[in-house]
C-alpha cells in the first residue's frame, strides 16, 4: 500500500490554483502524473498524492514543473471563483468512478499521441520520398539535356564535315576540267598547274631514291634503359598459435581454458542447429510448444516445461508469454536470477503498456517481484508489486502481499 503524502501546500486566486508537493528525495524520472478536469494523482513510489478537486479545471492549460525536490502544479480554473477548500468530499464509489475515468482518458490520450506520431512519421517518409523523386527527376532531366546538346553538336559537326567534303569534291572537279582544257590550248598553263599541284618535298626525295637519309633524319636515338632487377626470394615462417594474444607462460592455463570454452560454445551451436533440423512438423510450431510447456508445468514437471519453452524461444523470441512462463518455472526450480531475466525480457516485449497486455504485465511484475524478495532484495520487489497493484488496484491478495513487503522494509516484521 503506498504512503499517502499530506505535507503539501496550496494557494489560489480567482482563476488559478497553485499546489506545491515535496518529492521526498525521489528522482524526477520516477514521478508519474495523471490529471483530468476534476482529479489529480501524483505517484512517486512508495509515495502517493491524490486529490479530488473542489471545482473543475482546464487540464489543457494547466502545467506541472518538477525539479529541485519539489513538484509545482499550476491549475487553471474553468470558472473565475475562489474555492473553499482544495479537496471535495465524495463517497468511495464516486472516487472509484473518477479514477477509472481518469485512467481511461490517459490511455486514450496516449493512444492518440501514438497515432499522431505514427502519422507524422509516415508524412515525413512520404515527404522524403517525394523530395528524392523530385531530385532524381531533375538529375534525369539534366542528363537528358546534356545528351540532347551533345547529339545536336555531333550532328552539326557531321553536317559541316559533309559540306566541306562536297566543296572539296567540287573544287577537284573544277581543277580537273581546267587541267584538261590547258592540254589542248596552252602549254604554259599546264606547266603552271603542274607546279602548283606538285607533291611535297618528302615525296620528291622518295621518288629520287633518297629514302634512307630522309628516314634517318626523322628517327630518334633510343634512350638508355636501366637493367632489370635481379629476382629474390623472401623467407616467411608462420606460427602455429591460435590464441590472439602474445605468449606468456603465466597465461597459458587461462588461454587453454578460453579455447576449451570456445570449442564447447561452437559444439553447442551446432547441436542446437541439429536439434532444429530433427524436429517434427508440429514441434516447429512455437504455439504448440507453449501449450506443451503449460501442460508440463501444471503436471509439476518444471524442468521439462523449461525445455519446451527453450525450444519455442529458439524458434520465436518475440512471444512475451514464453519468457513469462519460463520465469514461473525458474521460480519453482529456485533459479531466481534466471526468473528475473526472463520476467524483464517479457516486460520489454510487452511495451507499450496498453489495456490488452495488462494481465500479462501483471504476471511478469509479480514473478519478478517474487524473485527479488526471495533474494532478499525487498525494495526492488516492492517496486514490482506496486507496479502490479497499479494495473489491478482491486486485487486484495496482491495488496496484502505488498503490505507485507512494506512491513519487512520498514522493520515492523
From TrEMBL:
Keywords (A to Z) from UniProt: Cell projection, Coiled coil, Cytoplasm, Neurogenesis, Nucleus, Repeat, TPR repeat
Pfam families linked to this entry: CS
Coiled-coil region list: 92-138
Superkingdom, natural source: Eukaryota
Primary location group: other
TPR repeats: 362-395
One GO term of the biological process aspect: nervous system development
GO molecular function, one term: nuclear estrogen receptor binding
Compositional bias annotation for Basic and acidic residues: 162-176
Compositional bias ranges of the Polar residues kind: 177-190, 205-215
Matching CDD domains: p23_DYX1C1_like
Location(s), subcellular: Cell projection, Neuron projection; Dynein axonemal particle; Nucleus
CS domain location: 3-87
An annotated GO cellular component: nucleus
Region (Disordered): 162-230
Protein name, entry field: Dynein axonemal assembly factor 4
Organism of this sequence: Sinocyclocheilus rhinocerous
Gene, per the UniProt record: dnaaf4
Amino acid at each position: 500500500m503506498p504512503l499517502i503524502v499530506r505535507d503539501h501546500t496550496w494557494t489560489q486566486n480567482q482563476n488559478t490554483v497553485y499546489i506545491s508537493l515535496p518529492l521526498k528525495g525521489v528522482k524526477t524520472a520516477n514521478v508519474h502524473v495523471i490529471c483530468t478536469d476534476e482529479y489529480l494523482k501524483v505517484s512517486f513510489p512508495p509515495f502517493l498524492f491524490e486529490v479530488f478537486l473542489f471545482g473543475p479545471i482546464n487540464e489543457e492549460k494547466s502545467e506541472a514543473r518538477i525539479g529541485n525536490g519539489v513538484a509545482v502544479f499550476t491549475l487553471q480554473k474553468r470558472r473565475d471563483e475562489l474555492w473553499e477548500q482544495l479537496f471535495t468530499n465524495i463517497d468511495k464509489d464516486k472516487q472509484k468512478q473518477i479514477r477509472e475515468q481518469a485512467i481511461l482518458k490517459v490511455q486514450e490520450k496516449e493512444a492518440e499521441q501514438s497515432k499522431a506520431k505514427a502519422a507524422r512519421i509516415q508524412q515525413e517518409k512520404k515527404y522524403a520520398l517525394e523530395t528524392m523523386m523530385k531530385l532524381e527527376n531533375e538529375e534525369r532531366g539534366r542528363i537528358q539535356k546534356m545528351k540532347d546538346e551533345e547529339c545536336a553538336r555531333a550532328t552539326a559537326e557531321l553536317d559541316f564535315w559533309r559540306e566541306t567534303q562536297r566543296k572539296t569534291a567540287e573544287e577537284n572537279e573544277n581543277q580537273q576540267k581546267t587541267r584538261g582544257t590547258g592540254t589542248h590550248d596552252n602549254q604554259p598553263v599546264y606547266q603552271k598547274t603542274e607546279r602548283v599541284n606538285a607533291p611535297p618535298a618528302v615525296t620528291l626525295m622518295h621518288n629520287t631514291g633518297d629514302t634512307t637519309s630522309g628516314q634517318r633524319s626523322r628517327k630518334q636515338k633510343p634512350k638508355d634503359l636501366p637493367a632489370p632487377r635481379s629476382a629474390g626470394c623472401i623467407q616467411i615462417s608462420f606460427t602455429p598459435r591460435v590464441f590472439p594474444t602474445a605468449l606468456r607462460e603465466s597465461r597459458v592455463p587461462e588461454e587453454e581454458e578460453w579455447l576449451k570454452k570456445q570449442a564447447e560454445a561452437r559444439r553447442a551451436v551446432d547441436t542446437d542447429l541439429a536439434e532444429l533440423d530433427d524436429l517434427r512438423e508440429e514441434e516447429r510450431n512455437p504455439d504448440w510448444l507453449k501449450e506443451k510447456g503449460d501442460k508440463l508445468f501444471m503436471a509439476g514437471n518444471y524442468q521439462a516445461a523449461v525445455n519446451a519453452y527453450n525450444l519455442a524461444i529458439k524458434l520465436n523470441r518475440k512471444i512475451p508469454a514464453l519468457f513469462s512462463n519460463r520465469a514461473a518455472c525458474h521460480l519453482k526450480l529456485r533459479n531466481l536470477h534466471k526468473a528475473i531475466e526472463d520476467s524483464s525480457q517479457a516486460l520489454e516485449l510487452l511495451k507499450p503498456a496498453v489495456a490488452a497486455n495488462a494481465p500479462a504485465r501483471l504476471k511478469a511484475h509479480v514473478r519478478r517481484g517474487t524473485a527479488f524478495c526471495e533474494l532478499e532484495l525487498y525494495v526492488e520487489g516492492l517496486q514490482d508489486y506496486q507496479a502490479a497493484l497499479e494495473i489491478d488496484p482491486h486485487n486484495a491478495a496482491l495488496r496484502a502481499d505488498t503490505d507485507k513487503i512494506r512491513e519487512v522494509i520498514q522493520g515492523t516484521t
